[in-house]
Specification:
single chain; mainly alpha; DUF2530 domain-containing protein; about 70% helix; elongated
Length: about 90
Amino acid sequence: MKLAPILDPGARKPGPKPAQVDLHRVFFIGTTLWLIAGIICLILVLLGKHATGALIVCVAGMIIGVLLLIWEHFNRWYYRRLGNQK
């Protein structure tokens, strides 16, 4: 193990460049998966199965996903700018 990068920050290798990502797609796919799971849990609750706790978790996941989509809409240029740095 080399101690030079620990002791001398100038000896470190340069870090990787930031990757260009599309958070809208990630948040949308995640929210869609929570929606599908929520529909399945709702069907189970309507059939009399005890899936109320799972339904609450799915609804919470959908709410968080929608909030993240709203956040992404207003902050898109921040993370896009980071991915475009050279």
